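Format notes (please read before filing issues)

Several people have asked whether sequences and structure tokens are stored in separate files. They are not. Every record keeps both together, in the order shown below: the sequence lines, then the token lines. Line labels are part of the format and must not be stripped during preprocessing.
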Amino acid sequence: MRRPVTLGLLTALGIFVADRLSKYAILEIVALPARGQISLLPFLDLTMVWNRGVSFGMLQADDMTGRLLLAGFAALVVCGLLIWLYRNTQLLVSVALGGIIGGAVGNLYDRLAWGAVADFVDLHILDYHWYVFNLADAAITLGVAALIIDSFRGSPAKD
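Then the structure lines:
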């Protein structure tokens, strides 16, 4: 297997494992669902939110059909990203795709296991709170940002 593909797959696996471990710690060890919220720093709380929709809570899926449709869509996106990864030859793009794939699979796992995605990182400044998110969401966001940055670099010269 080519090096960029391997790096992308290892990134995806690493993100997935880190996401699962973080959610296990939050749900089982910290028991955040029972506690609701824990203040850590003046700008950071752990706040339990079960997101039944997609990004930023849009398209809430409260019934089984909606959850299965969202899960199916996520699985199709992951398949498309895997095809992109296998065709890609650039290291930055491979890591970015791996982050997106690992995050998407982490959130897909939640949706299939619990019917919703476990979000718990609550960043805020005074009374302004950003959307509550998790490690998978952060990996997806950073992966997309890296792809956008890479798109401004232009295509490598061909010999």
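For reference, the curators noted about this record: The first helix runs from residue 3 to 29. The chain has five helices and four strands.
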